[in-house]
Write a structure and sequence with these properties.
18 strands, 2 domains, 1 helix, globular, single chain
Length: 295
């Protein structure tokens, strides 16, 4: 694909009111539901210069050897793993914020089935630290690999109970598809009305389909005030909403989740720490004995 998918995607932002590009947008938690009038959902728009969820990548460093070359009929390559991403937020020609996202951890799960027994996608899972405020940023990138009528319409990130969240997205390659919408809900409904609030979940909407020319999602971000992260059994979800009459199906995979608990060192690391402390103690005792002997 020679042009960005954003120019080809369907406009789903009738509720958007901002006239400027955005930054990380705080997702509301003060509503028992996301009604009335789309109160808790944040809509993007099919114009990056007016999309409140879009942040511009100004520079990135990509890890060697992690290019996904299977872009099907698009015939291109996909740069997958960015070890650092410098970004800016802007209003018109005015830069309103900048930062650098530094990669802390990443993993990929291949052969993810959109429906049981049928491998469909690769899901990339990242954790970054934002230099702008020191906060953790979880990121998801979805690649639909099978050229059929199956598509993913919603991506979910779980594990945010008790934490604040803010959403954003950016391009990593020209083949990326934008984030249509974000909100704190686990709903699988495409309606904007009566959507139930779920404080554990951030739902990010797109339309990732090989047959429609949009196999890649953009890099979808969720920033949080959680201090730590860990591996969890339920981290990323995906769902086909049946927009073109397909079956309504989905699932979830394990990955990185937010936590308030500091990580526990691996046993071998713990053993090395103890050994190091032992050597320090031995050296201190030896210096003490030498000092006494000299005295």
């Amino acid at each position: 694909m020679q042009v960005k998918s954003i120019a080809l995607s369907i406009l789903l932002a009738a509720g958007a009111t901002s006239a400027s590009a955005g930054n990380f947008v705080t997702l509301r938690t003060d509503l028992p539901s996301l009604t009335p009038a789309n109160g808790g959902l944040v809509n993007g728009i099919n114009n990056i210069n007016a999309d409140v969820l879009y942040i511009e990548t100004t520079a990135s460093t990509l890890l060697d050897g992690y290019n996904d070359t299977t872009l099907f009929s698009e015939g291109g390559t996909g740069d997958v793993v960015a070890s650092s991403i410098s970004y800016r937020a802007y209003t018109g020609s005015t830069t309103t914020g900048t930062g650098t996202l530094t990669l802390l951890d990443w993993r990929v799960t291949n052969d993810v089935p959109l429906q049981a027994g049928e491998p469909q996608a690769s899901v990339y899972d990242f954790v970054y630290r934002d230099s702008a405020d020191g906060k953790l940023v979880f990121a998801t990138r979805y690649l639909n690999r099978v050229e059929n009528d199956q598509e993913a319409n919603f991506l979910y990130r779980y594990g945010f109970t008790g934490f604040s969240t803010a959403a954003a997205w950016t391009f990593l390659t020209d083949s990326d598809l934008r984030q249509y919408q974000a909100g704190r809900t686990s709903s699988t409904s495409t309606s904007n009305l009566g959507i139930p609030f779920d404080g554990d979940t951030v739902r990010q909407r797109g339309d990732f389909s090989v047959s429609e020319g949009n196999p890649w999602s953009g890099l979808f971000f969720v920033k949080t005030d959680a201090q730590y992260y860990a591996l969890g059994d339920k981290a990323i979800g995906y769902f086909q909403a049946g927009e073109e009459g397909q079956e309504k199906v989905g699932g979830f995979i394990g990955g990185f989740v937010a936590t308030s608990t500091p990580p526990v060192p691996e046993p071998e690391i713990h053993a090395l720490l103890l050994a190091g402390l032992g050597l320090i103690g031995y050296a201190a005792r030896r210096r003490l004995k030498q000092g006494i002997a000299e005295w």
